[in-house]
Amino acid sequence: MKIQFSKMQGLGNDFMVIDGVNQQIKLSPDTIRQLGDRHFGIGFDQLLLVEPATRDDIDFSYRIFNNDGSEVEQCGNGARCFARFVHDKGLSLKQEIAVETARGVIYPRLENNDNVSVNMGVPQFAPKEIPFIADSDQIIHPLDIDGTNFAISVVSMGNPHAVQVVADVETAPIASIGPKIETHPRFPAKVNVGFMQIISRDEIRLRVFERAAGETLACGTGACAAVVAGIRRGLLNPLVRVITHGGELSIAWGGDSQAVWMTGPAITVFDGIINLQGEEYAA
Ligand SMILES: N[C@@H](CCC[C@H](N)C(=O)O)C(=O)O
C-alpha cells in the first residue's frame, strides 16, 4: 500500500501529514513509531491524520499522534500545518476552517502574509486528566521532585501542560527535570512541561519538554499554556511574543472564558510517497 504524505514544520516542530480523506489509512502505534524514527523511518515529532468531518457544521476531523504512537488531544503547531495542508492540497478553499480534534473544535485561519492564526479554544485550569487539581482558582501548585518544590501552573489547551518560570531557559534543567515532571504520579495521563523565561510583559522565551516526544524546537499548545499561565500570574500582557529555539509565535489571550489565539508560520518541506507492506495500511 502506497501512502502519500507531506513533511511539514511549524517553528521546527515537524510533522508527517497524511490525507485520510482521499486515502484509507489505518496505522498501528508500532507503525507510527517506525515512521517517526529519524534514522529508520521518515522522522517527525507528531503524525497528523486529516479525516473527513463527522458533522455538518465542521470541515474536517484531525487526529494527532506523538512519535511514540500515542494519540493525543491537541497540537498547536500541527493545527497551522493542517490548515496549510488542506489548502495547498485543494481539500478546502476556505480561508477559515472548522476542525474537530479529540478535544473540541478549533478554527485555523490562513492569513494573507503566509502565517496561520488559530483560535485554540478556551484554556482550562482544572482539567479532567489532572484529577488532583480540583480548584481552578489556584494559579500556582507546588510539585515535589526529589525533595525540591517546583512552582507550576497547570493549563489544559485540550492537552495538559505544567508551566514553570525560570531565570534563564538556556541553563534550565530541561533534560533532567522535564521527564520527572512529565511522568510525575500527580499527572496520571502525563504532561507537557514548559520552562518560561520572562523577558518583559510582552515577550517570553520558552522551551518545552513535550509529553512522549521529548524536547521539541517549539510547542504551539505549550506557548499558549505558558502565556495563559503568565497572564494569570500577573506577569504578562494580553499579547505576547514567544521566542523558541525554532522561531517565534504570537499568542493573545483576553483572560477568563476567552479563547487563546496563536499566530505563526506553517511550512511544507517536501511531499513523499511511502510504500508500506501489510493489511493494516489498507482499510
Ligand atoms: N507539538 C505540539 C503538541 C503535541 C502533543 C503533545 N506532545 C502532547 O502529548 O500533548 C504543539 O505544537 O502543540
From TrEMBL:
Q: Where does substrate bind?
A: N13, Q46, N66, G76, N77, N159, N192, E210, R211, G220, T221
Chief location bin? cytoplasm
Q: Where in the cell is it found?
A: Cytoplasm
Active-site positions, per UniProt? C75, C219
- Top-level EC class: isomerase
InterPro entries, A to Z: DAP_epimerase_AS, DAP_epimerase_DapF
Q: Where is the signal peptide?
A: none
Reaction catalysis annotation: (2S,6S)-2,6-diaminopimelate = meso-2,6-diaminopimelate
Note the Pfam families from the entry: DAP_epimerase (PF01678)
Query: Where does it sit, as one GO cellular component term?
Result: cytosol
Pathway, per record: Amino-acid biosynthesis; L-lysine biosynthesis via DAP pathway; DL-2,6-diaminopimelate from LL-2,6-diaminopimelate: step 1/1
Q: What is its EC number?
A: 5.1.1.7
Which GO BP terms, alphabetically? lysine biosynthetic process via diaminopimelate
Q: Which keywords fit this entry according to its UniProt record?
A: Amino-acid biosynthesis, Cytoplasm, Isomerase, Lysine biosynthesis
For the site Could be important to modulate the pK values of the two catalytic cysteine residues, which positions are given?
A: H161, E210
Which family, according to UniProt?
Answer: Belongs to the diaminopimelate epimerase family.
Instruction: Summarize subunit and interaction data from the UniProt record for this chain.
Output: Homodimer.
What NCBIfam families does UniProt report for this protein, alphabetically?
Answer: DapF (TIGR00652)
Q: Which protein are we looking at? A: Diaminopimelate epimerase
Q: Which organism is it from?
A: Iodobacter ciconiae
